[in-house]
Every structure is written in structure tokens, then in C-alpha cells.
């Protein structure tokens, strides 16, 4: 009986400490969410940073929405994607709707020799915002060794998801540093925040983007540069193969409107309140439970995909 009492006291303090820790985490989460999405504040971006915004992968999905939102805030936009037809279409939509100048650069980020062309096209532009959005993923969740055309997939994901972020930053950051202002938004992913087996290469490339962004932010914030790592969960786009929106899966327009509210406030964000809540829940799960949930979920998506592919 005597020896049980100190043990009970110890457990009491462990319990009280855990509750206090969780209460502090939740309060902090609510405070930062309210600060970004609840309070009206001046946007952390706009032509005052430099009249041009550059968006990679800007003819669809999240990138197109960034281009439109930045144009709505008065920025001229450089659109970069593969297809000149799609670029012309989005470019004329933006010019008509928002009455701003646009420029297009048709390149395939799978190639490594495109950066001289991009550099020449961007020469002389006063760039205030760079959105490193372009990214590619797998057709379906798959075990590493079973990924179709593994050699090319490795190269493609590394070149598009990683090299583009480094090279575009290398091209645009010097001008920002010279003018002591600028914003760089790097679109990582929830799967860059937490490891996602069966999407291993994608997840690892997005972790690179997250670390790269955090490091560059620390290196250049004293030069007036704000770098943000954006870590979305599902957004209804072609890449996600999701058309139907829900509270948990916003449209690209809704997602980007809310994500842009965090610019200047949060160097690392899930960009959308429900995604931030999910991030907080996942971050307190024990890793065995987290991996069990993710593996089971990705295994069932894989099975459904393969079954459907076999039928066709
Ligand atoms: N959607 C999601 O649920 C989600 C979640 C987390 C993170 N993300 C990230 O968000 C970013 C945007 O994804 P999204 O869902 O908006 O994708 P999306 O709808 O598939 O749009 C991709 C855009 O990139 C362009 N693009 C694709 N491959 C390209 C290449 N090799 N070279 C040049 N341009 C290329 C496409 O235009 P063209 O085909 O005309 O070239 C298109 O404009 C990606 O980095 C992705 O990893 C998305």
C-alpha cells in the first residue's frame, strides 16, 4: 500500500502533464487558425512586392487557382506549363477577367535543359511572387519495386518535383534579395509532412520540398523574403483524381483562397483549416497506428485500381 502511493502520485503528474500539453497544443492550433482565417488582415502578397508573379504548373488545379488569385490581387502573371494551347487559353481567361498582363512559357519540367529558356523569358521582370507548384505523382499507390517503368518514374518525380523547385528558386531569388522583398510559395504535400508508404518516391520528394522551403526561409527571411511550405491534404484536382468536393476535400479555388491568407504569417501551413486539424491529429498518433491506417488505406486503393485495370 505504501509503495503504491508514490506510483499513483507519479501517474497523476504524468496524466496532468499530458493533459496540459494537449491543451496547450490545441490552444496554439486554434490561435494560429483564428489569426490566419478568422481575422481580416492585409494580404502578405501583391504588386508592392514586385509586379509579376510566376507560377509553375499553372494551367490546371492548384497552380491555375494561384495564378487567378494573384491576378485578382493585381499581379501580372507568368504562366509555365507544358501545353502552349492550354497556356494560351488560361492566359486569355486571366487577361480578360482580371485585366492584368500575362506571359506564357511552354516547357516540360521533365527535361533538365529548360532553365536557360525560362531565364531568358523572365529576364528584366520584377518578380514579387514565385509559386513552385508543378508536381507529379503515381498513377496509383504501389510497392516500390512494382512501380511500372520504375527507372523513368524515379527520374520524372525527382526532376519535376525536386529539381524544378531548386532551379526556379535559383533563377528568381537573386532579384528578390536585391530588392529585399519577395514571397516564394512551395507546394509540398501532406505526404511530405508524414511518410506515405506505397507513394514512397512522391512522399520523399515532397519531404524534400518541405525541408528545402523551411531552410531557405530561415536563410533569407532577414533579407525580407518569405518562403512558405504549403502542405495540402486532398484537393479536388486531376492529379488527385478527385472531382467531387467535400468539407475535407476542397476545390482548388477554395483551397488557394484560404492558403493565401496564411502568406506572411505561417512559413509552414496545411493551407486549409480542416487539413490543419488532420495534420494535428496525425502528428499525435503513435507511428505504428499511423502506418497501419495509411498502409491499409493505400492497399485498398491499390487493390481497387488493379481490379479495375484488369477488367478494362
Ligand atoms: N491535388 C491534391 O490533392 C494535392 C495534394 C497535395 C499536394 N499537391 C501538390 O499540388 C501541386 C499541384 O497539383 P494539382 O493537383 O493541382 O495537379 P494538376 O491538377 O494535375 O495540375 C498540374 C499542372 O502542372 C502542369 N504540369 C504537369 N506536369 C508538367 C510538366 N512535366 N511540365 C510542366 N508542367 C506540367 C499541368 O499542365 P500541363 O498538363 O498543360 O503541362 C497542370 O497545369 C503538385 O505539386 C502536387 O504534388 C496536390
UniProtKB/TrEMBL annotation:
User: Does Transcription regulation show up as a keyword for this record?
Assistant: no
**GO biological process, any:** steroid biosynthetic process
Q: Is the keyword Endoplasmic reticulum assigned to this protein?
A: yes
Membrane-spanning ranges: 12-31, 183-204, 272-291
Subcellular location as annotated = Endoplasmic reticulum membrane
The record's annotation in PROSITE patterns points to: ADH_SHORT
Entry keywords, A to Z: Endoplasmic reticulum, Lipid biosynthesis, Lipid metabolism, Membrane, NADP, Oxidoreductase, Steroid biosynthesis, Transmembrane, Transmembrane helix
Give the catalysed reaction(s), semicolon-separated. Answer: a very-long-chain (3R)-3-hydroxyacyl-CoA + NADP(+) = a very-long-chain 3-oxoacyl-CoA + NADPH + H(+); (7Z,10Z,13Z,16Z)-3-oxodocosatetraenoyl-CoA + NADPH + H(+) = (3R)-hydroxy-(7Z,10Z,13Z,16Z)-docosatetraenoyl-CoA + NADP(+); 3-oxo-(7Z,10Z,13Z,16Z,19Z)-docosapentaenoyl-CoA + NADPH + H(+) = (3R)-hydroxy-(7Z,10Z,13Z,16Z,19Z)-docosapentaenoyl-CoA + NADP(+); 17beta-estradiol + NADP(+) = estrone + NADPH + H(+)
Xref: SUPFAM superfamilies = NAD(P)-binding Rossmann-fold domains
- Cellular component, GO annotation: endoplasmic reticulum membrane
Identify the pathway: Steroid biosynthesis; estrogen biosynthesis; Lipid metabolism; fatty acid biosynthesis
Membrane topology, record value: Multi-pass membrane protein
Kindly give the InterPro entries that the UniProt entry links to this protein: NAD(P)-bd_dom_sf, Sc_DH/Rdtase_CS, SDR_fam, VLCFA-Steroid_DH
Please give one Gene Ontology molecular function term for this protein: estradiol 17-beta-dehydrogenase [NAD(P)+] activity
Say which enzyme class the record assigns. oxidoreductase
- Known EC number: 1.1.1.330, 1.1.1.62
Family membership: Belongs to the short-chain dehydrogenases/reductases (SDR) family. 17-beta-HSD 3 subfamily.
**What functional role does this protein have?**
Catalyzes the second of the four reactions of the long-chain fatty acids elongation cycle. This endoplasmic reticulum-bound enzymatic process, allows the addition of two carbons to the chain of long- and very long-chain fatty acids/VLCFAs per cycle. This enzyme has a 3-ketoacyl-CoA reductase activity, reducing 3-ketoacyl-CoA to 3-hydroxyacyl-CoA, within each cycle of fatty acid elongation. Thereby, it may participate in the production of VLCFAs of different chain lengths that are involved in multiple biological processes as precursors of membrane lipids and lipid mediators.
Protein name as it appears in the record: Very-long-chain 3-oxoacyl-CoA reductase
Taxonomic lineage = Eukaryota, Metazoa, Chordata, Craniata, Vertebrata
Amino acid at each position: 500500500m505504501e509503495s503504491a502511493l508514490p506510483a499513483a502520485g507519479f501517474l497523476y503528474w504524468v496524466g496532468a502533464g499530458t493533459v496540459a500539453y494537449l491543451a496547450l497544443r490545441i490552444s496554439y492550433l486554434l490561435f494560429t487558425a483564428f489569426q490566419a482565417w478568422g481575422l481580416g488582415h492585409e494580404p502578405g502578397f501583391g504588386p508592392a512586392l514586385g509586379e509579376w508573379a510566376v507560377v509553375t504548373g499553372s494551367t490546371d488545379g492548384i497552380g491555375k487557382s494561384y495564378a487567378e488569385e494573384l491576378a485578382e490581387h493585381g499581379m501580372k502573371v507568368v504562366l509555365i506549363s507544358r501545353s502552349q494551347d492550354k497556356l494560351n487559353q488560361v492566359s486569355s481567361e486571366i487577361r480578360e477577367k482580371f485585366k492584368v498582363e500575362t506571359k506564357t512559357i511552354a516547357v516540360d519540367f521533365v527535361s533538365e535543359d529548360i532553365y536557360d529558356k525560362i531565364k531568358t523569358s523572365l529576364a528584366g521582370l520584377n518578380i514579387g511572387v514565385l509559386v513552385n507548384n508543378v508536381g507529379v505523382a503515381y498513377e496509383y499507390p504501389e510497392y516500390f519495386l512494382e512501380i511500372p517503368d520504375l527507372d523513368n518514374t524515379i527520374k520524372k518525380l525527382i526532376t519535376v518535383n525536386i529539381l524544378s523547385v531548386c532551379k526556379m528558386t535559383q533563377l528568381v531569388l537573386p532579384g528578390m534579395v536585391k530588392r529585399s522583398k519577395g514571397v516564394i510559395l512551395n507546394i509540398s504535400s501532406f505526404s511530405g509532412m508524414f511518410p506515405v508508404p506505397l507513394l514512397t518516391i512522391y512522399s520523399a520528394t515532397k519531404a524534400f520540398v518541405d525541408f528545402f522551403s523551411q531552410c531557405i526561409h530561415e536563410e533569407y527571411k532577414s533579407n525580407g523574403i518569405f518562403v512558405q511550405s504549403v502542405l495540402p491534404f486532398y484537393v479536388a484536382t486531376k492529379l488527385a483524381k478527385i472531382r467531387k468536393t467535400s468539407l475535407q476535400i476542397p476545390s482548388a479555388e477554395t483551397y488557394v483562397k484560404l492558403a493565401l491568407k496564411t502568406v506572411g504569417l505561417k512559413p509552414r501551413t496545411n493551407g486549409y483549416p480542416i487539413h490543419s486539424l488532420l495534420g494535428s491529429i496525425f502528428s499525435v498518433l503513435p507511428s505504428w497506428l499511423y502506418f497501419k491506417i495509411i498502409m491499409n488505406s493505400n492497399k485498398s486503393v491499390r487493390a481497387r485500381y488493379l481490379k479495375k485495370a484488369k477488367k478494362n
